[in-house]
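Session log. Operator J.P. requested a structure for one protein chain; no other inputs attached. Running the standard single-chain path with token output.
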Amino acid sequence: MDLNQLYTELILEHSQNSENKKHLGHANCTERGHNPSCGDDITLELVCNGDVIEDASFTGVGCAISQASTSIMIDLIKGKSKEEAEKLADIFLSMIKKEITDDSKLEVLEDAMVFKSISNMPARVKCATLSWHTLKEAMYKDNKNNG
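Structure written below.
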């Protein structure tokens, strides 16, 4: 199996069978992300205990890339501090913008590295980054309200 096929399978798996796609009734930080140009629309729900993201999920609709990116992001941020989650978002967004190209600096993204080549498909960049921007906005608002 070649690398592109493996990446495609990972995206399909996360977009179709996401354990992270559900409503969290006890979420204490919620943020909606919307991309009107393509119709991707997610609501990110977080359970934050102090500085730690104890649980996270999402609801909404969108293409396979936006849904998979959101699911993979959630897998990465669960159990992390808000600061660590924001740093992961910054690294992901820098990867998409080709500001970071050294794979050793991207390894912290784990499965999210699958989106590294998305920058070669400009129409899909917003799909892959929607959840990451939504996370940053949620952290900003949470810090502003609780800081």
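Operator note: The chain has a mean pLDDT of 90.
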